[in-house]
Amino acid sequence: MTDKPLDVLAIGNAIVDVITDADDAFLAAQGLDKGSMRLIDQGEAVRLYGEMGPGRESSGGSAGNTVAGIAALGLKAGFIGQVADDELGRIYAHDLRATGVQFTTPARSDVGASARCLILVTPDAQRTMNTFLGAAQRLPATAISAAEVSSAKILYLEGYLWDPEEPRAAMEAAIDAARAAGTKVAFTLSDSFCISRHRDGFLKLIDDGRIDILFANEDEILALSVESDFEAAVAAVAPKVSVLAVTRSEKGAIAVAGAERAEVAAEPIERLVDTTGAGDLFAAGFLAGQARGLSLETSLKLGAIAAAEVIQHYGARPEADLRMLAGNLLS
Questions:
Q1: Which of 303, 65, 103 is CA-nearest to residue 190?
Q2: What Cα–Cα distance (Å) separates residue 221 from each residue in 12, 59, 152, 244, 290?
Q3: Rounded Cα gap, residues 215 and 50, in angstroms
Q4: What average pLDDT does the chain have?
Q5: Above 70 in pLDDT, residue 2?
Q6: Is 123 inside any structural domain?
Q7: Which of 99, 108, 152, 196 is the most exposed place for a label (fewest CB within 10 A)?
């Protein structure tokens, strides 16, 4: 795979994040469950935005955050995602390209408004996400270039995008192209909400051998396996994929590849500010390590470093120099 120009090519929701502070009383008044993610329509997006306090806008989306992290680590990354031909779509494209990520998906004028996620951060650093998918759920299979997929060492897919039929077909086409080209396929379960809706579809991908690297957090691996014990859940899922990586918040993360298992502790931080993007940046570090052919332990360490950086400030994109934080781990 050393002759492939891209280390990671990701497919995901192209979403602009709007992040604002909120307290528990505001969440209660809006009928929101703290720490949850819900899908909303354009009308609710406009209404809630009007009720929110001053916000900070930044390009986001799970897989988009991951490739931005990969680029920040000095690797070559690309992204496929749909935006509309509107102001937020142009903001998204500019911000992502400014990180060094290859993004060539044309904007469309026939898909409504670009996606946005209204993120309410409470003083305990929990984030409550309200997502209007808009144009992001209109990614067509025609946006997938077999040549672009084959140019990457790893294809990374986010479970959030599995819900709408059109982008699901695009992702399946990309998986076909990856398997034909010897490109590894990585998949993140994204959220227990996604598993509740698409568990059978996710399991079919895994059971059919179409996923090489699977990402989950502790709740997600339990939901996927329908086990109540963490170790039992890992034992049930790990044999079905080449690599399983599971994050456990303050308890660190583990990875399993066949008979090999590695664990790392969470990186120490000065202050927890906003957990938005923690899993996305963990995936960035881990995939960077895997793309470079590094060990499970080193890949986990890189993931922990990247995740620790992003939770110490608002927003889901790195602000510190991740290459400096990684030190000689990527050399």
A1: 65
A2: 21, 28, 27, 10, 21
A3: 35
A4: 94
A5: no
A6: no
A7: 196
Give per-residue pLDDT as tens, 148-191: 999 999 999 999 999 889 999 999 999 999 999 999 999 999 98
- Rg of the chain taking only CA atoms, in angstroms: 18
137, 161, 180, 184 from 167: Cα distances, Å: 6, 6, 20, 20
| Range(s) of the domain holding residue 232 | 6-13+61-111+138-330
**What pLDDT, in 10s, does the model give residues 15-36?**
988 889 999 999 999 999 998 8
* Range list of β-strands (E), the chain: 6-11, 15-21, 37-39, 56-60, 77-80, 102-103, 115-121, 127-132, 152-158, 184-188, 213-217, 243-247, 253-257, 260-264
Residue 1 confidence (pLDDT) above 50: no
d(C-alpha 293, C-alpha 302), whole Å: 13
Asked whether residue 100 is domain-assigned, the answer is: yes
Number of helices and strands (H, E) in the chain?
A: 12, 14
What is the side-by-side strand order in the sheet with 152-158? 102-103, 77-80, 6-11, 152-158, 184-188, 213-217, 243-247, 253-257, 260-264
Task: Tell how strand 243-247 and strand 253-257 pair up.
Answer: antiparallel
Residue 10 contacts residue 67 (beta carbons within 8 Å): yes
Q: How many domains does the chain have?
A: 1
Give me the mean pLDDT over the 312-331 stretch: 91
**131 domain residue, yes or no:** no
Assigned domain for 132 exists: no
Across-strand partners of 17?
A: 58, 117
For residue 213, CA distances in Å to 34, 88, 185, 202 come to: 30, 32, 6, 13
CATH code of residue 239: 3.40.1190.20
